[in-house]
Amino acid sequence: MNTSRDAVKSRVRREVDALFETFGRPDEACGSSQPKFQRQVLTQLAGLRVVQQQQGQLLGDLVTRFARRDMEAQANSEPLVAMPFDDYGTLKQFDCTLTGTRKEVFIRELAVKGGANPAACTKRMLRYVMTDHLACQFSWQGRKGKLSFCQMQLPSCITCAVQTAHEASDFTVEMAIREWLRHAPARQHNAIAKDSAAE
């Protein structure tokens, strides 16, 4: 307890010195009580600044702790996606349920997947949601006879989830989704070839 009190006093002294450097030291030779008053005011200000910084740090730690606990609780609860969807019908049904609280729960479920950067994070989430077989049926806007991915709720869920872990624009996440969908046929072809070679 004394150690933390001494640390606070030391920080207050440093803050007072910094304030004196900024505003100048009072002229103690003038013989009035003004220099003493100035020192007291600056000491109080420095003390308030130190306390404010400590409370800010404490608040930041609490926010981080609660966010981590919330994510761990979500990870330990029953997931909304038991395994990646493999057909459009069931994925579409699931997508239609992503509103309100359920959407928020799903975003937290996705956010736990993580990733080293926004693109890697996006791809991990997409792999969690659907197989390459199903991804082959989609393109971002649904051109060339494919299904439109951007019309679903999933893209906004993935974007929000990525942005909880990384600083990323909507466009960055969209480009990662587009790329992942575009390469789905090649991934599926490679997986089939690998399975054939193993037999």
Automatic annotation (TrEMBL):
Entry's PANTHER family? Answer: SI:CH211-262H13.3-RELATED, SI:CH211-262H13.3-RELATED-RELATED
The lineage's top-level taxon is Eukaryota
Q: What is this protein called?
A: DUF4806 domain-containing protein
Organism, per UniProt? Rhipicephalus sanguineus (Brown dog tick)
